[in-house]
Amino acid sequence: MQLIDIGVNLTNPSFDGKHQAVLERAYAAGVQQLVLTGTSVDGSEQALDLCEKLDDSGQRLFSTAGLHPHSANDWNGDSAQRLRGLLGQPRVRAVGECGLDFNRDFSPRPQQEKVLEEHLALAIELKLPVFLHERDANARLLEILKDYRDHLTAAVVHCFTGEQAALFSYLDLDLHIGITGWICDERRGTHLHPLVREIPRGRLMLESDAPYLLPRTLRPKPKNGRNEPAYLPEVLREVALHRNESAEDLARHSTACARAFFGLPVVA
After folding, report:
1. Which domain holds residue 67?
2. Could you give the number of structural domains in the chain?
3. Residue 16: left if φ>0, alpha if ψ -120 to 50, beta else—which one?
C-alpha cells in the first residue's frame, strides 16, 4: 500500500537535523512520495534544496513554490521573478501555497487578493496546478477563481476544513480537495465525517500538513506532539472509515489522484 503526502512543511525548524529520520519513518509507514510545501519565496527555495539533497533517486521528494497569504505583505517586485525561476525546476510541481486567509488577516485582504492573482497568472503561464489555502474566505476565493478557472490546469484546496456549502462550491469548480488530520479532531473536525463521502474519486488527496495537525486519534501519541508524514496512515484510516471504503481502496485511488495531479512518477 503506497501513500502520497501532498503537503508537508519539511522546512519547518522543528524538523531541523531530523530530515533523514523523518523520511525513513515515512517510507517505512508506506508514505512513498512527499510534496514539500513552499510558503515563502525563501522557504520555497529551501524546500527545493531539501528535495535535491535528500532524494538522489528523483522519484520521492517534490515541492511547491509560492507565498502563503499570511506573508502577502512580503511580496515585492522580485518575488514573481524568483518564483518563476523556481517553478521552472523539474522537482517543483505546483504553484503555492497561495490563497486567502480572512481568519487571522496577518496581511491586508486587498494585498492577499493581489498576490493570489499573481500566483494564478503564473500558474496559467507555466501550465502548473495550484496549491490553495483558504480560511474564512470561501466566497471571495470563488469570485477570484471564477475569472481564472477555465485557464488553470488544476487546483487543490489543501487542508479543507469548511462546511458543506464550501465543499460543494469547490467541487462545482472542478477543484481537488486535500484532507488532513483535522478530520481526526473530535473538538472541531467531526463535521467533515459526512462530507468526505461527497468528494468524488479522482478529486480526493491526503496530506499530513506536518508538523501541524497531529491526528488526535493516533495511538500512541508522540511525546513531542509533533506531526510527521509517518502518521498519514491515521488520516487514511479515519477518512476510509467515514467513506465506507477499505483503507487499501482509499490508498489506491487517492494516491492515483495525487500522482496524476502533480505529475509524479511511479515508485518502483
Report:
1. 3-262
2. 1
3. beta
Q: What is the DSSP letter of 78?
A: T
Encoded amino acid at 65, one letter: A
Q: pLDDT tens digits for the chain (268 residues)?
A: 899 999 999 999 999 999 999 999 999 999 999 999 999 999 999 999 999 999 999 999 999 999 999 999 999 989 999 999 999 999 999 999 999 999 988 999 999 999 999 999 999 999 999 999 999 999 999 999 999 999 999 999 999 999 999 999 999 999 999 999 999 999 999 999 999 999 999 999 999 999 999 999 999 999 999 999 999 999 999 999 999 999 999 999 999 999 999 999 999 7
Identify residue 187 by its one-letter amino acid code. Answer: R
268 belongs to a structural domain: no
Concatenated DSSP letters for 84-145? HHHHTSTTEEEEEEEEEETTT-SS-HHHHHHHHHHHHHHHHHHT--EEEEEES-HHHHHHHH
Binding site residue list: 97, 133, 158, 209
Classify 13 as helix, strand or coil. helix
CATH code for the domain of 158: 3.20.20.140
C-alpha cell at 19: 530530515
Amino acid at 252: R
Going by the annotation, the residues of the binding site for a divalent metal cation are: 97, 133, 158, 209
